[in-house]
Design goal:
Layout: H1 3-8, H2 16-27, H3 33-46, H4 50-62, H5 67-93, H6 96-100, H7 117-131, H8 134-146, H9 151-170
């Protein structure tokens, strides 16, 4: 049994669907295996679930996912944790003056990832969906489509993010 399956077995019966969905989204879909694992790891970090993160990282290593992908997933979660707060604030306030302010936040990793630009964008999109940042979601979705990523692939990335986030919530439920 994989580390993720062992952890998922702890999900209470009330959230049984998440156990099944987690297995499905990590196994199937239009994304490559490395993209699936990277999206899942970034999503677990964004969902603030160390146990789920550790299980996914262990299973990604067992699946021969390159260290650069795990590194980018981790970096995407951190950078988007910052960007999602900032850009969501600007969007929600909706005042033109804030749009004119200098951003002044370093985010070089977005343009120079350790793996691939498209993969990093997928990881960033997943984190932005979890953090509900409309500005970032729109920007990353457009960047992905400009790089040839299909709507189906974008949809699969967000499905993984949703299931991983739901799993993180379910793991906090009383058993």
């Amino acid at each position: 049994m994989s580390a993720t399956e062992t952890l998922a077995a702890r999900i209470p019966e009330a959230a049984r669907d998440l156990r099944l969905n987690l297995q499905a989204v990590l196994r199937d879909g239009t994304l490559t295996p490395t993209q699936r694992w990277g999206v899942a790891i970034a999503s677990a970090i964004a969902s603030r679930s160390p146990a789920l993160r550790d299980a996914l990282v262990a299973d990604a290593a067992a699946a021969d996912v390159p260290a650069a992908v795990v590194e980018d997933a981790t970096a995407a979660a951190a950078i988007m944790g910052m960007n999602n707060v900032y850009y969501r604030f600007r969007h929600l306030v909706g005042l033109p003056g804030y749009e004119q302010q200098r951003v002044g936040l370093r985010m070089n990793r977005l343009v120079k990832p350790a793996s691939s630009r498209a993969d990093f964008e997928l990881f960033a999109l997943a984190v932005s969906a979890i953090n509900a940042c409309e500005t970032c979601i729109r920007g990353h979705e457009k960047a992905l489509r400009d790089q040839g990523i299909t709507e189906e692939q974008v949809n699969d990335a967000v499905r993984i993010a949703a299931v991983v986030h739901g799993t993180a919530v379910a793991l906090q439920m009383p058993e």
